[in-house]
Structures are given as C-alpha cells and as structure tokens.
Amino acid sequence: MLNSKKILLIITGGIAAYKCPDLVRRMRERGANVRCVLTSSAKNFVASMTLSAISEERVYEELYSLTDEHEMGHIQLGRDADIILVAPATANMLTKMACGLADDLASSILLATDKPVFAAPSMNVRMWENPAIQENVELLRKRDIKIIGPEEGDMACHDYGLGRMSEPSEIIAALENFLTVDTPLSGRHALVTSGPTHEPIDPVRYIANRSSGKQGYAIAESLAKLGARTTLVSGPTHLPTPSGVDMVCVESASQMLAACEAALPADIAVFVAAVCDWHVAERAPNKLKKNMQSTPLALQLSENPDILATIGADNINRPKLVVGFAAETENVIENAKEKLTSKGCDWIVANNVSLDCGTLSGDKNTVHLITETKSEEWPTLNKSAVGLRIARRIAKALGNRAKEQSVGI
Questions:
Q1: What CATH number is given to the structural domain containing 136?
Q2: How many domains does the chain fold into?
Q3: Which end of the chain has fewer beta carbons closer than 10 Å to its terminal beta carbon, N or C?
Q4: Residue 400, pLDDT above cutoff 80
C-alpha cells in the first residue's frame, strides 16, 4: 500500500525518536519515498545524518532557511507529500497542533497542509492522562487527524502505562489501513464487543477479567476502515476511541448485553470482550470492612447472561455473520470447536491467553480461525494486523454470500 507514496515524517523531541530510523527503513522497504523534518529538540535524540542516509533524502530542520524559504519550503513540503506523519508526537506538538501554532518548520507545515495527517503520541503516562492533552487529542480527532496509539508499557522514566509510541510495524499498519481504497463493507453495520466487564462486590470492589481491549479495538477500527458503520461496545479500558467508530461504554455483563441488543440489527457481530461468567448475587450497598467480618467473607455468585449465545440464538435480529472469541489456556483448538457449536456462532477466533504468552496485555496475538469446515493457524502478528486480517476475511465472506444469494444458490 505504501509503494510510491510520498511520506513526510515530522520527528519531534521525545525519547521514542530513536525508533524513527527503523520506521524510515521499514517504510522505504515497502516502496515509500520518505522525507524527514526534525524539530530543534528532536536533534537531541536522533542525528540528521542518520536519517538522511537511510531515507536518501535531505533532512529539513529550519523554518528560516534562506535556501528553503526562497521556495516557500514550509508550504512546498506539505504540498509534495501524500501523507504527513508526526512520530513521535510529543505533548507539546499535539498542543501546538490543536491550537494552530506555527513557530517552527514542523508546526508551520502542519498548519499549512491539506494532506492527511497522522500522529503517533509519545509521552509520560501522567502527561497522556492529563485532561488538557485528552481534550487536545479529542479536538484533533474531530479535525480528522488520525491518532495512532499510544501503547501501554514500561517507559524511559520507569513509569508504566499508556504513553509509549506505537512500534514502527503498527504505525505502518495504520498507514496501510488508511490507504486501503476499497470499502467492501460500505452499507453494512458491524457490532464489536471488547475489554473486560466489571461485576461489583460493593461500591469499591469488583470482579473482573484480564483484558486490555486492544484486539477488539483493532477489529472495530479495521471494520470501520473497510466501510462498515461500526458500533463498539466496550468494558472499562484505557484505550482511546478508534477512528470512525461509535463507542458505547459499559461496565457489567448485563449492561453489555443490553447495549448489544440496542445496537441490533447488524450484519456483523464480533464478540471479543472478556465477559465475566458470574456476578455477585447480592451487591453490598456499602464498602465491606474486613474488621466487621466474624468469619472469612464468602461471595455468593450468580451466572451472567451469555452474550454470544443470546445474540447467536436470536431468530429475529441475528447478524448474518457471528464471530466469537475463545480465550483459552489449554486445549485451545478442542475447546474452541466445542464453543463454536454450543454458542451458535459462525466462526470462532481462538487464542492462548496463558500468562506466559503475554497475549492479554501485549501488542501481539497468535490466533486460530475456526469454522464448521476448517481450522486455520495464523502467524503471530501485532493486534492491528490481526484486526485488519479478520475484517478482510469478514468482508470476503459477506461478499461471497451476497453473490450466492444473487444467483439463487
């Protein structure tokens, strides 16, 4: 998808700038022409000569360059590009973009361009969670700036959380996803569930499943990119709303089922959420104090509604294609095949979520696609790539079914 595309990479002053030479190399391997712009602070993290050698292009740094500005360089650089990518996008640069400031070459290019702009944020977790940054990011999304990431993980400052710049492979996947010109799911409605559910014990505590929501969000974004009107019903996560997706936030399994039923009818339903199987039968109205318990606390659990089975058995509003996820720690294929039959779905996407695999909180996934007739093992991919691959398989399946119906098969 990047072949012959002209990409202007704006590198700002964050530690994640060290990833940019690799990002340039990978984009060029895919046939892209890459020009780099360095801010003054970015030069503290990556050398202009390195970027020039890898890109085989001149690196641009100064707004007030007599040579460049004789040709209105800050206008021409944006005009020549097919895509502008800001990576890493620091808190400072995101704020300048939101406010329309233009006090250096990078920000002047961004203000003067009419080309698609992508930004891959990179900053400390507390900076990312600051309301000012969140408001700026939301404003940029409304202006059709595409936000890639950030990811969760360890940081250079020894904190842990959201704020890591997405890896080069994920940034490239986002660009390729955007450049997918066909929209085979146009006119279709897709329903996706993601994240965990939280089942309250008292006003403070809850039962939950381990889930980052990353895979479900990636699938929802990919379905939207392929043209589907996409509704994402999500349990609590720390992830930003995917581009082009209608978000419905819930907490419990019963709320998730109600939101799914309210979103019907749909052509496609992909149930990725890690839904708790049980809830506390009687939620305590006040916080339970351990010094008030004469005996160890025992929780009486009741079974939660089975969202996948409920929607799969809906004779009136059942989507044309129902896809379930099977998160297993043993006998992955066997358990998934049993779930395919018992839940009434068309496909099961199975994966191993043992703690030593790192699937639940990580950025990669190894999945098996299981249908009534076959089982496919996919290679380990980042979750964005898995999401796009699943979305394309869904589009192909619905397209084949439409052809069969049109010829009376």
A1: 3.40.50.1950
A2: 2
A3: C
A4: no
